[in-house]
Amino acid sequence: MINSWLKRAMENLFKKSEEKENFKKARQEWLYKGLEDNQYCEAECELCNHEEIRYEYIIVNSLNNNLMVVGSECIKKFTDDFKTDFYDIEGNLVNEKRLTKDKNEYFKKILSEALDKRLANSNNAFYKSIAEQIKKDGKLTPNQLKSLHNFYPTLEEMGRRAFKSVVTVSLKKEREQEQIAKLSQNELEFVSQFMSSQQRKRFGISLIK
Ligand SMILES: [Zn+2]
């Protein structure tokens, strides 16, 4: 049975491929190019015509150099559902792990840019060190996070999404655990958004949203 997604995908892919009848063959003409660095463009997935995709993965046709912008759900289909190997332009096998890695790097890049524009340019050494820490591994102490309470809402939507995906709360050290205990209710609400569910459980915090 051909579902409606596959019907649209076949139509769209054949339009830009050399192969016009065999979907598997047409699909093998395409290589993974990467994640588009365009956070403000609201694009449509060219494979399924789904509107307003958040992340734009680019695929390129190895025979005619046609490009297609594909959403995150559809790019995943290239890595598993299609039952054929999917490669990038350098010949590396692309799997779901690679797509996740690229997305994380993309988030880091967006966040780095936002931080460079704001915190790192401030003359405040404290904020500079936080910006460095976020770029390094994203692990912040409760007190570092607390100090970003006013900065966070000023980020664009994509920046906030990136922040949530990159930043985690460091709570291994006793000193850090003590910091949690000293937060005001307001500060705790902010900081706990970035804690893992395990951490919240451990500290008896319920997520207020
Ligand atoms: Zn799609």
Strand share of the residues? Answer: 5-15%
How would you name the oligomeric state of the polypeptide chains in this document? Answer: single chain
The gross shape turns out to be elongated
Low-confidence stretches: none
Structural class comes to: mainly alpha
The helix tally amounts to 10
Largest sheet: 3 strands, antiparallel
Tell me the distance between the termini: 42 Å
Report on the structure:
With 209 residues, this protein is mainly α. It folds into two domains: 4-94, no CATH class; 102-202, no CATH class. Helices cover 47% and strands 9% of the residues. It is built from ten helices and five strands. The strands form two sheets. It has a three-stranded antiparallel β-sheet. Strand 2 (57-61) and strand 3 (67-70) form a beta hairpin. The two termini are 42 Å apart. The model has no long low-confidence stretch (mean pLDDT 87). Bound molecules: zinc ion.
Task: Label this structure with key terms.
10 helices, two-stranded parallel ribbon, binds zinc ion, single chain, 209 residues
Map the helices and strands.
Elements: H1 4-16, H2 23-28, E1 30-35, E2 57-61, E3 67-70, H3 72-79, H4 96-117, H5 125-136, E4 139-140, H6 142-146, H7 157-166, E5 168-169, H8 174-182, H9 185-192, H10 197-202
Parallel strand pairs: 4-5
Antiparallel strand pairs: 1-2, 2-3
Helix pairs in contact: 4-7
The structure holds zinc ion.
